[in-house]
Design a protein that fits this description.
By secondary structure, the chain is an alpha+beta fold. It has one domain. The chain is built from 3 helices and 4 strands; from the N terminus they run ββββααα. The protein has a 4-stranded antiparallel sheet. The longest helix has 13 residues. The radius of gyration is 15 Å and the shape is globular.
Length: 98
């Protein structure tokens, strides 16, 4: 099995609605492919994205480029994944603590 060089990943943070922070790691062209065989890898760390708090996501590099790069793609991806959960999470937090 191949060893993953963790230095290939860059670490980033997305802030949704001005308060919700989602950490992610990104590796451009993860497998070294060309053209349609080039795929980027995202690792998202948030319970809003996944029930386990971790989500591995591969996407064609051209798609990421078409969205303006990894930061724009990741933000749109997270907004889509959390669109029904963000308001619920805020209400649940309020109800549990007061």
């Amino acid at each position: 099995m191949a060893t993953i060089n963790k230095e290939q990943y860059s670490e980033h943070v997305i802030t949704l609605n001005g308060t919700i922070r989602i950490n992610y790691r990104y590796w451009n062209n993860r497998f070294g492919g060309i053209d349609e065989y080039s795929h980027d890898h995202f690792e998202f760390n948030s319970l809003l994205i996944s029930e386990t708090g971790y989500l591995s996501h591969f996407v064609n590099s051209a798609v990421v480029a078409n969205y303006g790069g990894h930061a724009d793609y990741a933000e749109l991806f997270c907004k889509e994944k959390t669109k029904d959960k963000v308001n619920i999470a805020q209400v649940d937090l309020f109800e549990c603590c007061f």
